[in-house]
Design a protein that fits this description.
The chain is an all-alpha fold. It has one domain: NusB-like (N-utilizing Substance Protein B Homolog, Chain A). Helices cover 78% and strands 0% of the residues. α1 (3-16) packs across α3 and α1 (3-16) crosses α6. The model is unreliable at 206-213 (pLDDT under 50).
């Protein structure tokens, strides 16, 4: 994993475990940040396993109750398949939680630490302004109504673009990759649209084409 990509992920996972009050973000140290990231991944894995277990029980019971009715058998199989997929997600989260500290140890830890803490400190410092930029870029929606993980992905990307000099395309692409891993199925498309609109407004240009349209996320 690239050092900066790993730092972005650490910052995102750290944010998810911390208060949204800016003052508390500034005081974070790297060890606490890493611990927060591992805790976030572990919690997600636990939630996924619990959901998978419930889904597997329902699917198994549905198969028992269905007898030989083809439609009911198919529904039960689909529920079991969903449970298997959720279990795989949980396994991947746990594996990543276990591997993350070792990845950092074997990588350029100083660069990862510096960039992750820079992201956090600037997110804290400019959060009010960043949130205003994001609210302005969303049509018929606002930042507070988004899932916490989506808010944090958007904030980190805008901080990179507006305050850290990261090229627009790089910041957007990295945010999309984070969303694909941690948001829901449609989250990355919404985040891509919001950030494209942020950039277009900053440049003073008009947003053109469907790709730049910002639709409200599905509730």
């Amino acid at each position: 994993m690239q050092a900066r990509r790993m730092a972005r992920e650490l910052a995102l996972l750290g944010l998810s475990q911390l208060s949204e009050k800016p003052g508390k973000l500034i005081t974070q140290d790297f060890k606490k940040l890493l611990l927060s990231a591992v805790q976030a991944l572990t919690a997600e894995a636990k939630d996924a396993l619990e959901t998978a277990s419930d889904e597997l029980k329902r699917g198994s019971q549905h198969l028992v109750d269905s007898g030989t009715r083809a439609s009911d058998v198919e529904k039960g199989r689909a529920m079991v398949e969903d449970a298997i997929a959720l279990t795989q997600t949980a396994i991947n989260r746990l594996a990543h939680a276990v591997e993350l500290p070792e990845f950092i140890r074997l990588s350029n830890q100083s660069e990862i630490e510096a960039f992750a803490l820079e992201l956090l400190s600037n997110t804290a410092k400019y959060q009010h302004d960043v949130d205003a930029v994001l609210d302005d870029a969303m049509v018929a929606w606002n930042l507070k109504r988004l899932a916490r993980i989506d808010r944090d992905i958007l904030r980190l990307a805008v901080v990179e673009i507006n305050y850290l000099g990261t090229p627009d395309r790089v910041a957007i692409n990295e945010a999309v990759e984070l969303a694909k891993r941690y948001s829901d199925d449609d989250g990355f498309r919404f985040i891509n649209g919001v950030l494209r609109r942020v950039v277009s407004r900053s440049d003073g240009s008009q947003v053109e084409g469907n790709e730049a349209t910002v639709d409200s996320p599905v509730a």
